[in-house]
Write a structure and sequence with these properties.
This protein has 323 residues and is α/β, with parallel strands linked by helices. Helix content is 37%, strand content 16%. It has a seven-stranded parallel sheet, sandwiched between helices. Strands 7-10 form a two-stranded parallel sheet. A two-stranded parallel ribbon has the order 8-13.
Length: 323
């Protein structure tokens, strides 16, 4: 059996679809708190073996662990503006530690979600070299929780024989309708343009960087799923923490122009001040160093930003479709 946590969320629900496509739906036990009914559409019509509520999952897992072949742990609290450290400690650290403990002691392979937010302001670069990870300085409680768990994993005396941590960069694509403020810039651009005919982008508050020239490593969700599948299926890939991006940073202007193009409209962009509650922790540049994953044997090309945005807009957002 496969365990998939965070199944109601963006990446988790897309991963469930991928597992269904691989013929593994009936072997997959899915975990979440299932309290947001409007997220149910993310998983409608998908085959699963069993639905397990997060509150009872840890006890269930310990009792059933001998039947488990793989854990894909994508469940987490991901709101980067939330300042309540206790919530992150409980859900992103302590809960994850208990899952890791069972996997380590019973040698169950595990793939878990970390985040590029752990790189902080980027001053130390974006290398997934594990010797550098303890030096990172995250800028918010969410990122700190991911950093704490990464360090816990690296310092664990007992590890499963196969494990992967995934530092997700800026993922966009279907099944993020529920995310609100935390949805991708593509999603917000599509909605804003549909409602107003224009798009608002944050001004730059940093010398040397023009408005809209802030850069991110945007990665299409289907590429993320290919990487997760590669980790699942490859027996000779070294365990460790890996960046999950494209290795090619693009500007917010590039992305916004791609959305206008996908909607067959001429660009209309206004620049606004970055909100003060996130201004100090705002990242101006992220770009995954992908050498480690490529050296491990991952060979599939990444979807170009314009191509991914066009597919997302025309095949999903415009039609209200889910993956």
């Amino acid at each position: 059996m496969i365990i998939l946590t965070g199944v109601s969320g963006f990446i988790g629900s897309c991963m469930l679809t991928k597992l269904n496509e691989l013929g593994l739906g009936r072997d997959t036990v899915v975990v979440d708190d299932f309290y947001m009914q409007y997220k149910d559409k993310n998983t409608d019509g998908k085959l699963v073996r069993e639905w397990v509520h997060r509150d009872i999952f840890l006890d269930w897992f310990e009792k059933t662990s001998q039947q488990i072949d793989l854990v894909i742990h994508l469940g987490a609290r991901t709101d980067t503006t939330l300042m309540d450290k206790k919530i992150f400690d409980a859900l992103n650290v302590d809960f994850s530690k208990r899952i890791w403990s069972v996997c380590a002691n019973r040698d169950i392979p595990i793939i878990y979600a970390s985040s590029a937010a752990t790189y902080g302001d980027g001053s130390l670069g974006f290398s997934d070299d594990e010797d550098l990870i303890p030096q990172l300085k995250p800028l918010n409680p969410y990122a700190e929780s991911k950093q704490t768990f990464d360090e816990y994993v690296l310092n664990s005396e007992i590890k499963p024989s196969k494990w992967f941590g995934c530092k997700f960069f800026n993922v966009f694509g279907p099944n993020e309708y529920h995310k609100g403020r935390m949805a991708s810039v593509v999603f917000h651009a599509y909605k804003q343009i549909a409602n107003t005919g224009s798009m608002k982008l944050f001004k730059s508050h940093k010398k040397g960087i023009k408005d809209g020239e802030q850069k991110r490593d945007f990665i299409y969700i289907l590429d993320v799923l290919e990487i997760l599948t590669f980790m699942m299926q490859s027996n000779d890939v070294a365990s460790g923490i890996y960046n999950v991006g494209t290795g090619n940073a693009r500007t917010f202007l590039d992305l916004t122009h791609a959305v206008f193009s996908a909607k067959d409209l001429d660009p209309s962009i206004d620049f606004i001040d970055t909100p003060e509650d996130i201004r100090d922790s705002y990242q101006y540049f992220t770009e995954a160093n992908m050498e480690k994953l490529l050296h491990a044997g991952y060979k599939k090309p990444f979807t170009a930003l314009e191509e991914g945005v066009q597919e997302y807009v025309r095949q999903y957002l415009r039609k209200g479709r889910y993956y």
